[in-house]
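Researcher: Please generate the 3D structure of the following complex. Treat every line as part of one assembly.
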Amino acid sequence: MRSEFRTAGKWVGGFLAVILALVVASWVVPPESVSRKVLDALLDTSYASATLRVAVPIAFAAMGGIFAEKTGIINIGIEGFLILSALSSIVAVVGLTNAGLSPQVALWVGFTVGILASIGAAAVFGVFVIRYQSNQVIAGLAIWLIALGLAPFVSLVLYESVNSPSVGTFGTWRIPLLADIPVVGPIFFDASPMVYLMFISAPLCWYVLAYTRLGRYIRASGDNPRALDTAGISVSRTRFKGVLISGVFCGIGGAGFTLGQLGRFVGSGETSIGGRGFLGIVAYLFGNYNPILSTIGALLFASFDALQFRLQQISELAIPQQFFRILPFVVVILVLMFIGRTRIPAVLGEHYDDDE
Amino acid sequence: MSGLKPRLERLFGVLIRLSVSERLLLSSAAVLVAIGVGMLFILGAGYASSCRSPALFVFGLEFCYNPIETYLVLLQGAFGDSFSLAVTLQWTTLLLFTGLSFAVPYKAGLFNIGAQGQFVLGSLATTIALLWAAEIAPSGTAGRLILVPVGLLAGATIGGLYGLLPGYLKHRFEVNEVISTLLLNFIATAIAFVTIDRYFVDEALEGTVSRSIPVEATFTSQLFPSSANFSLGVFVFGLLLLGGFYWLLNNSAVGYEIRTMGTQPKAARFGGVNERFITLFSMTVAGAVAGLGGALFIMMVLGRWMTGAPPVGFDGIAVSILAGNNPLALLPSGLLFGALQSGGQAIQFQLGIPSQLVGVLRGLIILLVATPELFRQLGIQLQRRGLITIEGGRD
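Model: Done. Output below.
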């Protein structure tokens, strides 16, 4: 565990070095040049805030993935849970707003509905892979493909379009005093509630996995299920709990992204989730199943994702928008090459029959 | 209780080594259950949407769509006339290629979820190669003799390279191929869009549409209406490819090594199977076949590149899994999904039910086929309640 934090220290150090290099470069580079504009865009506090916002779905998907995989269940279905949660939250908010509920209340109820939908999907997935021993990779893939069909289907039935109507978002919560700190204040203390939730959840997940009884059971279920069974704890139940917790976090990711940032559901192509669940998977591989490090990974990928909003505005660059869409994916594949083999749970993907 | 398990294993076979008839049974059961669950979705959709004349009343509830009628329209839309049949076969043809693209690496124990990306980049390469070649190629038959191979080769090559990439990452850097192929799909879509949008866009048309490829490079319809864009020759080519891969996997040395690596990785390693070669080979072949599908999509169906490629690559996964990853079984399985695709259009136009329903069915079928245990336990339940008797039955 300690060596992992040394790695994290290196990353944070590297990150600060990059920032420093950018600041130095922005003094050297002549004003009014294109590179100066790029540097200004990168050193803007709103770029940092955008990165935090964009990281929300990726980080929560990663936390969800960790809980499933630590119990020994491969969960490729994360992306599907995010999509289902995103759509359900919007459906609930639209319905409640039409019923006359105040927007803020509707948003929070919608957020809850999104999480419940994701838990429901996770329960179905759990029953299939644990009770009925489905091939976990294929079942996860199936969950994604079902969500990819079901979400636009529902949207078309309800709204006659694959895209939902727009609703409001949570906006930002300004924390008095702290938000007035220069540079750091507007980034960290005038952010979306989802960003705060992300920063609370990551250490909480880490604590639960490392120091609580549930965390120990979850780790044992993935590394040495026989020992857990011998101790009289049901492996199947532990795994089912892990998958349900996975559903909770994926639900927060999908609904948090939709209601915290986008304000609508887009059902065309790969939907508005657009692979963020898969980025989450890479984030926890990057973080070697440590929730805090995985969140740092999510922030790294998000910083590339958020670039598109910044650099698009510099007309001299004239880089097509789609290029920025693939940037995080390209980065992620490069990252995957350097992660190589991670210390995966020993019996990942294998079924275990509890002795009765 | 102790005697139950070996008896059941005798009854149902060891699950990982299902025989052909058991496979068939499992696949049919999965399709039937998926169709049943699909009916619930149709009912739900019919309940949620509003219409002037409800199609169905049950317990005082109004439903806009009748599930039985929906499936009949779907069937009609897939096989009802020669045009519908041609469209079904057109989809089937493409699915044979993307299905193979999943099946071959699967035999080697590798998941290729990237057929969609390989398909898209293959179709992009074919379009570009043909647009370039058109400027120098002669017209008429001579041009055809040059352009058709150029188009097919371009698609297969680029698709193959795009399959080789995750294979190489897997072998050299131990990157999990499920993740890398998934991510490469997203990259492929964007690359194709930007390339066409920047360099090959047809100014006369709205949206991101490339210029038309030369007519000499297109396949025309035989026997079927020309508007259906289905060439019997291409279909036969697809069938030959299935036969070829069946032979390759079951009768050749490479096929033996592929299967050994898939079923007994450790034994394969000790037995001297070249893991590196098999990984790179099967992923490249998978990419090339998917890319070939992309080439044919351009040359037989569209005649130019358009945004929003159909999910043929993802359907290919379903086709292959339903077929038990057996190349010969890809034909009936591909036919089923081809019918779902063309029938899906019919239910959208005639009944107003979103064709995305087909996507849901696809996912359900994959999920159920991946779960033989579900049907086994269902069988046990039914047997216990005395609803069915299975040979060698109860005590």
